[in-house]
Amino acid sequence: MNNNGGMKSQAIIIVLVIAVVFFGLVRYRQVMGDSYYRTGTTALQEGQHAKAEIYLKKALALTPKSSWAGQARNELSFCQIVLGESTAPAGMEIFSLTDWLSSPVSLAMIAAILGLLSLGIFYHFKRRARIRKLEEYVVYLKRVEHRIKAHMNPSIEGMNKTTFDGSVDYENYINYYKRSEYATFAKCVVGEFHLKQHPNDIDLIQSLEKSYLEFAKGFPDSKLHEETQQKLANLYFFTLDNYEQAKAVYKWIIEKYPQSKWVKIAQARSKLIEDNPEGNYDPLRYYIKAERYYEDKKYPESLEQFEKLIATFSESKLAVESQYAIADIYMFKTNQTDRAIAEYQKIIDHYGQSPFAGKSQYKIGECYKKLQKYPEAIKAYESFIVNYPQTEFLDYAYYYIGYCCEQIKDAARALEIYKKILQDFSGSIWVVVAESRIAALTPK
């Protein structure tokens, strides 16, 4: 955070305050010295030599270099002669709290203490105010970002009645905190918001890319670094069509943050890029467009793009992935389970050697189970076990066969299946459940 200008201004103010206090006390000493001198002179004229001595000493102690100091010393000597005292020069005498407060040493001490106290109080409250402001903006930052992601009006009720899109508050935050971590992150969020309003504005795209790179360079150890890098990779992937750069950033995320929630996405997109030779990215562009519609929950548009890819590039590696994505959309997003079964079957029929064929056979079993067509589900799971024995989820398939057998009241077959899980899949998550079901189904 760049506060040099503000700190200089604060230092100047503190120096001025100390100077005003110091010179005010000096002036106070002068006024009091003049008053004591007049009182002493009046007492001398009235013949009150003892009183005159006291006030003349006070006057000389406060202002020994005043214009009347020479005359005061003569008058003091006269009083001392009359009173039979020594006329030798005496050290400074402190006669009262007022005199002590007005001494040169005391003035310096008071000025220093007041200055330090003012400085401490100023910085304490300044720091408290900035911390509160920071905390408020960090919370607000995340709330507005959530609204932007949800495609809602990001103004927050009760926060700022004049804010219509949330970006004004981010920009105020940026101006307030200058080069702080959260201010730089706020610039990214503002850029994301404006780009959503004008998705084809090349200047906004380049500005957002610059903001991501600035954050990555300036705050490599930030907790937000992982997120901004994922966003940068997505910008290259979805918007700039810079697939090589996107792949480089995705791979960096995989290596740097292996536990990240974005690792699977980064791995999948890196593989997509690698599966398409450089210079032949037309199928990938269809796929990316479909995936973007999918992320925006525009499933009909996403299906349309996947179908276009299959029709135009049927030999592409992305064709089978697109077919699998179509089947998943029907199963999980539009709740058209019967249609999903037909789409999964297309993969088995046309791409039987693909890794997606085994997954599709398993998903067909899932669809029938969802439809409560248990005999068909059992048949589908058995086909998966026989034809794709090396595929993951084999233990899942066995367990769901046992489950479906229970639903059709075939307890003997269910017991047989659960015992096989204990025998062949000792490390499976279904072992404990299988033991429980065996205990429940075994005749007492």
Fill in the keyword field for this structure.
20 helices, 0% strand, elongated, single chain, 444 residues, Serine Threonine Protein Phosphatase 5, Tetratricopeptide repeat, mainly alpha
Write the layout of secondary structure elements.
Layout: H1 4-45, H2 49-62, H3 69-82, H4 97-101, H5 104-149, H6 167-177, H7 181-197, H8 202-218, H9 225-239, H10 243-256, H11 263-274, H12 282-295, H13 299-312, H14 317-333, H15 337-350, H16 355-370, H17 374-387, H18 394-407, H19 411-424, H20 431-441
Helix pairs in contact: 1-2, 1-5, 2-3, 5-7, 6-7, 7-8, 8-9, 9-10, 10-11, 12-13, 13-14, 14-15, 15-16, 16-17, 17-18, 18-19, 19-20
Overview of this structure, please?
The protein is an all-alpha fold and 444 residues long. Among the domains are: 4-102, no CATH class; 289-391, Tetratricopeptide repeat domain (Serine Threonine Protein Phosphatase 5, Tetratricopeptide repeat); 396-444, no CATH class. The protein has 20 helices and no strands. The chain has helices at residues 4-45, 49-62, 69-82, 97-101, 104-149, 167-177, 181-197, 202-218, 225-239, 243-256, 263-274, 282-295, 299-312, 317-333, 337-350, 355-370, 374-387, 394-407, 411-424, 431-441. Helix 8 packs antiparallel against helix 9 (225-239). The chain is elongated. The two termini are 74 Å apart.
Please summarize what this structure is.
With 444 residues, this protein is mainly alpha-helical.
